[in-house]
Amino acid sequence: MEFELNKEQKQIQKAVREFVRGKFDKTAIAEMETQHQYPEKLWKMAAELGFIGIHFPEEYSGQGLGVLENTLVAEELCRGDSTVGACLILADFASEIILHFGSEAQKTKWLPKVAEGHILSCGAFTEPDHGSDITRVNTTAVKDGGEWVIDGSKIFITNGGPRAGFYNVLCQTDPDADRDTEA
Q1: Is residue 138 situated within a structural domain?
Q2: How crowded is residue 82: how many other Cβ atoms within 10 Å of its Cβ?
Q3: What are the start-end ranges of the H helices in the chain?
Q4: Residue 42 included in any domain
Q5: Tell me: the pLDDT tens digits for 76-115?
Q6: Helix/strand/coil (H, E, C) string of 59-88?
Q7: Which of 62, 100, 124, 128 could hold 53 in an S-S bridge, CB 3.0 to 4.6 Å?
């Protein structure tokens, strides 16, 4: 069994490493951290280079690559600076839900915007009383006509704010669902 990266994977690794070497300015990054600023310019550049949503299918502005290639991007970005690297690799956080379970209209509308660096994908999963235990969700969503009405609280919302294009919010839609996780 071979454990070597293939030629394309090595090229991706090299491209991300060169991007980091050329664009990750330690002084500028320290200033962004002090000012609590999102690395917007780096995010836009990373998206232009195809590093955001690299695993999205090509029809959604991705490169159609896999988890290993996405991991190589994450590794090289975080090798350059773990804070900025995490911001960039998490730009598509929560878009997996749309990628795997969304309608075609949702995929077409949102995934290209994430991959092209126009918006961040936001995930609101954590609750004040339960942390990230998805079996103990208090937030509810009730259908009211053609809309869902959400009631509850979330904390530690990843990518929330003005750059978020959409929010994936974990909600309980069936009040009668069995919450007992014991077998």
Answers
A1: no
A2: 10
A3: 7-23, 26-35, 40-48, 67-80, 82-89, 95-101, 104-115
A4: yes
A5: 999 999 999 999 999 999 999 999 999 999 999 999 999 9
A6: HHCCCCCCHHHHHHHHHHHHHHCHHHHHHH
A7: 62
Q: By residue range, what is the domain housing residue 2?
A: 1-91
Does a structural domain hold residue 86? yes
> Are 94 and 122 contacting, i.e. CB atoms less than 8 angstroms apart?
yes
Place of tokens 């690559």: 65
- Domain containing residue 69: CATH number: 1.10.540.10
**Distance, CA of 78 to CA of 93 (rounded, Å):** 16
Output phi, psi for 178, to 5 deg: -75, 120
Amino acid symbol at 165: G
| pLDDT tens-digit readout, 47-84 | 999 999 999 999 999 999 999 999 999 999 999 999 99
d(CA 158, CA 126) in angstroms, rounded, equals 10
Q: Is residue 57 part of a domain?
A: yes
